[in-house]
């Protein structure tokens, strides 16, 4: 999955790239239509104001989503089922077991996070940098007669 963002800071060989929410995301109003920004740090060279195409493999995005959402949900449901199986007459025990299952899964994700953070397989990579002069020139170029924007 590749996204294009703007380089907002350069720290040695690391670029800070800022991405804005996709334009089509603003229609649901779940975030009150406020502009959402995401900032990532990637290794590469560029200048502040340049555009950067950053990629994170789709498989990595799916794995991260599973770790963040599916694993804790499985812990919650598994804990509740185990609690209900051990104490069928006590729903409070099932709820407590579910909370324990959720906590164990969240702790496992947190403990293993450092390894994922250091692994290059989990890091976004810089595909290309588009210098500010190139995309500013394209924006300012006059349209030829007869062209349509559709």
Number-wise, the strands total 5
Q: Can you list the strand order of the major beta sheet?
A: 3-2-1-4-5
β-strand amount: 15-25%
Structural class: alpha+beta
Largest sheet: 5 strands, antiparallel
Shape: elongated
Number of helices: 3
Determine the N-to-C terminus distance: 26 Å
Number of domains: 1
* Unreliably modeled segments: none
- The rounded Rg comes to 23 Å
Secondary-structure element sequence? EEEEHHEH
Write the layout of secondary structure elements.
Elements lengths: L1 E10 L2 E7 L16 E7 L7 E5 L2 H29 L4 H28 L6 E6 L1 H9 L10
Antiparallel strand pairs: 1-2, 1-4, 2-3, 4-5
Please characterize this protein's 3D structure.
The protein is α+β, with helices and mostly antiparallel strands and 150 residues long. The chain has one domain (2-134). The protein contains three helices and five strands. A five-stranded antiparallel β-sheet has the order 3-2-1-4-5. Helix 1 packs antiparallel against helix 2. The radius of gyration is 23 Å and the shape is elongated. The two termini are 26 Å apart. The model has no long low-confidence stretch (mean pLDDT 81).
């Amino acid at each position: 999955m590749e996204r294009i963002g703007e380089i907002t800071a350069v720290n040695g060989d690391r670029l800070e790239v800022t991405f804005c929410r996709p334009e089509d995301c603003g229609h649901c109003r779940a975030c009150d239509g406020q502009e959402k920004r995401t900032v990532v740090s990637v290794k590469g060279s560029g200048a502040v104001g340049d555009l950067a195409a950053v990629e994170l493999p789709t498989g990595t995005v799916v794995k991260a989503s599973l770790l963040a959402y599916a694993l804790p949900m499985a812990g919650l449901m598994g804990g509740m089922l185990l609690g209900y199986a051990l104490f069928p007459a006590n729903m409070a025990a099932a709820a407590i077991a579910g909370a324990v299952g959720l906590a164990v899964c969240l702790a496992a994700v947190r403990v293993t996070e450092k390894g994922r953070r250091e692994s290059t397989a989990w890091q976004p990579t810089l595909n290309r940098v588009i210098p500010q002069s190139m995309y500013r020139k394209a924006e300012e170029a006059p349209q030829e007669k007869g062209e349509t924007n559709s």
